[in-house]
């Protein structure tokens, strides 16, 4: 597993928030679960750009951070469902504000991000 060379100081609340939401799909996964999408296969269908492996890794990290809980049903084939914990539900207003901000500044951000991506060495 990747180890950061410089450890984050966790004294700042925004650093703590970024640490638990760090990952391309974590906020999207939390929003999906909040909307009632609980099965990993349904999450993958609702996030077509994400691979199954990445979603599983990020769901596992969300579980380790206490934001989601996982229920494994004892049947064949195994059935797994995720649910938000109280801590995970408390993040939903933050995710909603991030969504609103992105939508409010979409035109400007898409232009800047498109240029930034085009300039990256490939």
UniProtKB/TrEMBL annotation:
HTH hxlR-type domain: residues covered: 12-110
InterPro entries, alphabetized: HTH_HxlR, WH-like_DNA-bd_sf, WH_DNA-bd_sf
Pfam families the UniProt entry points to: HxlR
Keywords, ordered alphabetically: DNA-binding, Transcription, Transcription regulation
This protein's name: Helix-turn-helix transcriptional regulator
Source organism of this protein record: Hymenobacter negativus
